[in-house]
Design goal:
heterodimer; A: mainly alpha; Alpha-Beta Plaits; 7% strand; B: alpha/beta; Rossmann fold; six-stranded mixed β-sheet; 17 strands
């Protein structure tokens, strides 16, 4: 065996290389089948970051289609409900610079809103029910409708179809449960003598 | 003497405890109005069970616990419920929350109550229920419902009961003074706890060595009870639950674990007194020892304060000088928070009201840039990296914050205290914690919305598909019927004739008959029209002749001509009538 290899070094090397090639090729082929990635994971990841309001302000019928569009190269600054934090997160994910929110698609709201139907005025036309992307409106034809507040994403889509304008978007009030500590303020009055001790200006937000 | 362990980090701020210890625990006159917030504890707020205008007696339950983690509230004195509404409460946000206002009648009449003196013979479950019904929540600061800590269902049997008498924060002496004056009752309370927990092997009272009088007061009562009083060097913050457990047992609780996971229960010493009062005397938690201190007050001492007493009432009886006070703090100088109003009430967790002068606690110095000195890391009792957390908090990098165990921060303020640049580090951490929790909540909500949206899409698609399927089925049926007709028509041509009774055949026959009729009406109409035209011509001729002869012809000829004209006219009329009839019939047929 060793003698034949020694006598035919080129042939032996050739056989060895071809053998290794076949072996690794088979291994890679098996791995490609076995560990196949289903779908486009980047779409899922972007969709995870979007706020899931399903409002369509980006021009797509829902967050998932917008995620798909971003994955194929669309601008990442079309989502007003997500705001700058969502843009930053997507920019971070895709490793691109984070642009400002595109004002064409709307402005970032300070407060989350939730739809509220003035029930006395509702005529039971079911138009808002059909418009709701998350099935958060309950009701039937010619019967009063109501919004399940916990399921409402505040997308605004039910307001426009209402023929009697009985839907209001109410801001979600921030109660004790939602409250959390504000960020420390940037103190511009950096020199201590600027601030008289007795009537210190702009001191709110600085707790003990 | 038991050995103790030394925690990492820690600071030694000026203690300032002597001021409030010169006098014994005092009592305040009953305030005119008391304000009992419905949420003074961790967990669900209590639900008011009295109406406005109701007369209540001292110790009467005025709000029920809701849910598993909640405590009831009791009337701190007798009087009338005058309001149940949102009022500013003692909270760092300065926000309002539902409160029950009781206007005192000044009589302070107790409701009927009685305790169990021989608690050794009562079942632990009954005692735990008594504690829960008495509305007892941890009085050290967090306000966790005590009964839950004592409830069975621990993953491990409890072998260590730790009583936290550390009181490590400057200024506060509520526990110290309570121990000095009420040691016997406190030990009874510990006895009750021990009985409930099945007499754990180790019962340790952890106390800092800056309270020699308190230690001396406890010593005679703990003899032969199996309770050990363990004193250890004073250092802030030794009173944190995890810190104290490490100091006393040398065991470090892993991140995210509760003492119960390690077979321990940790209870504040003030709570043990409340438990004794609840079990032995049958009194719910309606008052507590609160330290009133600070240089802006002429009187610095501890008061047995009714829950719901407005801070302003306390200040009014302590020679408070508003102009000398830099801020009002609830809690101590390290972990307390500034009050936005003096009208907020004392709650079950209020161990101290601090009214410092400007020289005592000056306004915050402006924050300067971080110089990376690393003193915060040395001071951190949780062995975190405050400086790194500060960077990531500024950058709002939530992933890194969590990777650096932000949630193990106990917010003790040691890092802020040592920071030479006066950076309000703890505020950054508190803010980031809030942001992360909010983001988590929103994540849950958005995942839920996604699920609902996807289901909605699926439902719409299904509905569309169903509709399409129905349409296809209809189309198919129509085609089938057509094919049958065609087939039948084919067989009819072959000469067998339409099979009687077949609807398609009847229709076909009717169509054939109609088609046959279609030809003759046109022809008939044409015939009628021709005859009308002829009749008209004849009438015209007769008329002309009559006009010609009128002038010269005789009467006889005239009569003949007139008769001929009449005849022609009649024929025309008949023809016209026939045509009209035919047209009518035909149009009906067409219809």
């Amino acid at each position: 065996m060793i003698e034949s290899i020694a006598q035919q070094p080129i042939l032996a090397a050739l056989i060895a290389m071809v053998g290794l090639g076949v072996l690794f090729g088979a291994l890679l082929g098996y791995a490609a089948e076995k560990f196949k990635v289903e779908g486009d994971p980047i779409v899922e990841q972007i969709d995870e970051l979007l706020p899931q309001t399903q409002c369509g302000q980006c021009g797509f019928p829902g967050c998932k289609p917008y995620a798909e569009s971003i994955a194929s190269g669309d601008a990442i600054n079309k989502c007003p409900p997500g705001g700058q934090s969502t843009i930053n997160a997507i920019a971070n994910l895709l490793d691109v610079p984070a642009p400002e929110l595109d004002a064409e698609h709307g402005e970032e709201a300070d407060l989350r809103t939730v739809a509220y139907i003035r029930e006395d005025e509702c005529i039971g036309c079911t138009k808002c029910i059909q418009a709701c992307p998350v099935d958060a409106i309950l009701g039937a034809a010619k019967l009063m409708h109501t919004v399940i507040a916990g399921e409402c994403t505040g997308c605004d889509l039910c307001v426009e179809p209402c023929p009697v304008d009985c839907i209001d978007m109410l801001p979600l009030t921030e109660g004790l449960k939602q409250w959390h500590w504000p960020a420390p303020q940037n103190q511009l009055d950096i020199i201590a003598s600027d601030r008289s001790g007795h009537e210190a200006p702009s001191n709110e937000g600085r707790a003990a | 003497m038991r050995s103790t362990w030394v925690t990492p980090g820690g600071v030694h701020p000026p203690e300032n405890k002597h001021q409030s210890l010169t006098m014994p625990i005092g009592s305040l006159p009953i305030p005119e109005k008391l304000l009992v917030p419905l949420s003074q504890h961790i967990g669900a707020p209590a639900k008011a069970c009295v109406k406005v205008g109701a007369k209540v007696l001292k110790g009467q339950k005025i709000a029920e616990a809701t849910g598993a983690v909640s405590v009831p509230m009791h009337a701190p004195t007798s009087g009338t419920v005058t309001a149940i509404e949102d009022r500013p409460i003692a909270h760092s946000s300065g926000m309002s929350a539902p409160c029950i206002e009781i206007t005192s009648d000044g009589k302070d009449t107790w409701i009927d109550h009685k305790g169990v003196a021989d608690f050794e013979h009562a079942s632990p479950q009954a005692l735990t229920k008594t504690i829960a019904d008495a509305g007892i929540a941890g009085m050290g600061g967090a306000g966790f419902p005590s009964a839950i800590k004592l409830s069975p269902g621990h993953r491990r049997p409890i072998n260590t009961l730790i009583i936290n008498a550390t009181e490590c924060e400057p200024y506060i002496t509520a526990d110290d003074s309570a121990i000095r004056e009420r040691a016997a009752e406190i030990i009874t309370g510990i006895g009750i706890l021990s009985h409930i927990l099945g007499n754990p092997v180790n019962i340790l009272i952890g106390i800092e060595d800056n309270k020699p009088e308190a230690i001396a007061a406890l010593e005679p009562h703990v003899a032969d009870t199996g309770i050990s009083v363990v004193s250890f060097p004073t250092k802030y913050p030794s009173g944190g639950e995890k810190q104290l457990i490490y100091i006393l047992t040398g065991k470090e609780l892993p991140s995210g674990q509760l003492p119960a996971d390690a077979g321990m229960v940790c209870i504040n010493i003030g709570t043990t007194y409340a438990i004794k009062r609840a079990v032995v005397n049958g009194e719910p938690l309606i008052s507590r020892v609160t330290t009133m201190t600070g240089n802006a007050c002429g009187i610095n001492r501890n008061y047995e304060t009714l829950i719901g007493t407005p801070v302003s009432h306390m200040l009014a009886h302590s020679e408070f000088n508003e102009h000398a006070c830099s801020r009002l703090v609830m809690g101590g100088p390290m972990m307390g928070f500034s009050l936005t109003s003096a009208e907020v009430p004392i709650v079950k967790t209020t161990n101290c009201i601090l009214a410092p002068s400007y020289s005592e606690i000056p306004d915050d110095e402006p924050a300067q840039a971080c110089i990376r000195c690393g003193m915060c890391a040395e001071a951190c009792p949780a062995s975190l990296l405050p400086q790194q957390l500060f960077w990531y908090s500024q950058a709002e990098d939530h992933d890194r914050l969590e990777a650096h165990n932000l949630f193990d921060c106990i917010e003790c303020g040691a890092c802020s205290y040592v920071c030479p640049s006066n950076i309000p580090l703890v505020q950054y951490y508190r803010h980031s914690k809030g942001e992360i929790l909010k983001a988590r909540e929103e994540k849950v909500k958005s995942d839920h919305a996604r699920e609902r949206f996807e289901f909605h899409q699926q439902r719409m698609e299904q509905a569309e598909k169903d509709k399409e399927a129905k349409r296809a089925a209809r189309r198919e049926a129509a085609e089938k019927a057509k094919a049958t007709v065609a087939a039948n028509a084919g067989t009819a041509k072959e000469g067998t004739g339409p099979a009687p009774g077949s609807a398609a055949d009847i229709i076909a026959a009717a169509q054939a008959r109609a088609a046959a009729k279609q030809v003759s009406p046109e022809e008939q109409q044409a015939k009628f029209e021709r005859s009308i035209a002829g009749a008209e011509m004849r009438v015209q001729m007769a008329t002309d002749k009559l006009v010609e002869t009128n002038a010269k012809q005789t009467e006889d000829q005239k009569n003949i001509l007139n008769a001929a004209l009449e005849g022609a006219k009649q024929k025309l009329e008949q023809a016209q009538a026939r045509l009209a009839e035919h047209v009518k019939k035909h149009s009906e047929q067409v219809k």
